[in-house]
């Protein structure tokens, strides 16, 4: 594997690892489907100044020509598909620092061979489209199982990505419009006029991790798509921010990381979910899925947001209340899809509108929940919170 930044935390790690994982995967965007162009080994745009992975990082041998900002999401996909951490392939110095450019581990060499094999299979058997990925065989294990497992218990619900396989064969022209579901959602939140009066919001609560104590969190937002989350961890403040044009992630003791383009698209989507009057206008078409799906105990109507050349996004609306229960989207990397699922709950009235006080973010690396205790609307927020800080010079 070829990587420069620590990947997502896995369940069972200490608090610091979990928080790093949350921040490394705080946003993800995009899902490849009937209208999305595969990202597999897409080179940087010709004629532009886009930096390639080989130009930015040392010792890149397979993913040389992809845009540099796609390398980290690709490595995140590998950690999710194999259920491992960066140390599985990368060498750690005596001080514990990962030395990503070294080739001392056989696992790293094998990972390169596996990527080349995967690309060859897709090129020779699927017309260059992404028919197989790392996850096709690994399914969360570093060692694929050649022998079918005996079913010792009831079948589990399908994985998130499996629930969307049918979309490759979907004909959107045959589906009815999903726009009325968004209209009903706006009404359930208090109506267009009430939502238009909300220009800013400050939320305070806790991030509930799989282990450890709750972490206090403050969230600052401005309509329609600016959002900054600040986790007050024991080692210092961790920040995830999107200001409508750029996004970044900062963790104590680590260099500032800019969000990749797919990350920023997802951050914009997630921010607009809390100022939803513009949300439906992000898509060229909104199509109502033929069959509803279950979200917990709720029957949900599913609306698919489509824009040609962009990945679809699925919205799950409660058939009774009209409220948004779930959003599912994917980060499309050169190696495969990183799924993200956001579940919204605990809707309450706040300043004349209804808003979720609880939401859960689930990814292959695990899940965590944000529980809000206090919401203030239309309060002044310093513009400096939405300005990306200057990057500190790298230590010599």
Verbal overview:
The structure is a single chain. With 396 residues, the chain is of the alpha+beta class. It has two domains: 15-144, Photosynthetic Reaction Center, subunit C, domain 2 (Orthogonal Bundle), CATH 1.10.468; 175-382, Lipoprotein localisation LolA/LolB/LppX (outer membrane lipoprotein receptor (LolB), chain A, Clam), CATH 2.50.20.10. The chain has helices at 15-24, 53-56, 71-82, 106-125, 134-138, 179-188, 192-196, 261-272; strands spanning 91-92, 98-99, 200-208, 215-222, 226-233, 236-242, 247-250, 257-258, 285-288, 293-295, 298-307, 310-318, 324-332, 337-350, 353-363, 366-377. The strands form two sheets. Strands 3, 4, 5, 6, 7, 8, 9, 10, 11, 12, 13, 14, 15 and 16 form a 14-stranded antiparallel beta sheet that branches. Strand 7 (247-250) and strand 8 (257-258) form a beta hairpin. It is globular, with a radius of gyration of 21 Å. The two termini are 25 Å apart. Mean pLDDT is 81; it is low at 1-39 and 153-169.
Short description:
With about 400 residues, the protein is α+β, with helices and mostly antiparallel strands. Helices cover about 20% and strands about 30% of the residues. The chain folds into two domains: about 15-145, Photosynthetic Reaction Center, subunit C, domain 2 (Orthogonal Bundle); about 175-380, outer membrane lipoprotein receptor (LolB), chain A (Clam).
List the helices and strands and how they pair.
Blueprint: H1 15-24, H2 53-56, H3 71-82, E1 91-92, E2 98-99, H4 106-125, H5 134-138, H6 179-188, H7 192-196, E3 200-208, E4 215-222, E5 226-233, E6 236-242, E7 247-250, E8 257-258, H8 261-272, E9 285-288, E10 293-295, E11 298-307, E12 310-318, E13 324-332, E14 337-350, E15 353-363, E16 366-377
Antiparallel strand pairs: 1-2, 3-4, 3-16, 4-5, 5-6, 6-7, 7-8, 9-11, 10-11, 11-12, 12-13, 13-14, 14-15, 15-16
